[in-house]
Write a structure and sequence with these properties.
This protein is α/β, with parallel strands linked by helices. Helices cover about 35% and strands about 15% of the residues. Strands 3-2-1-4-5 form a 5-stranded mixed β-sheet.
Amino acid sequence: MAFASFDSKSAGAPMSEINMVPLIDVMLVLLVIFIVTAPLLTQAVKLELPKVSSQVNDMRPEKVEFAIDAAGLLYWNGEQVARDEAARRFEAEGKKPTQPEVHLRADQAVAYRFVAQTLADASKAGLTKVGFISEPDAK
């Protein structure tokens, strides 16, 4: 490895050559290391895996269609109910392991207090998945 030259003409000029021998030596050593260690990394453990069916489990929660008409009457899946009966049904649904989704349909002319009472009853029962159903604008 020559870093200096005894030639006085090129003494001030920068060295324009790169010595590749050390770089090649390092690359060859790394190649040997990878060749030796690669077979050690591909060992597999022999396992006998369990057999299962490929049927899909339908885990979608139930849904409760709750409607409030313009007169303030309450409907549970199409059946007219009183507020206290609706609250009892909300309690029963809230105790299930998979809580249903409550789809709330309210007439646009209904007073907001009926909607607020229904939301309060569902919230007291522990139901958190409440969705408002509406119709899109016809344009």
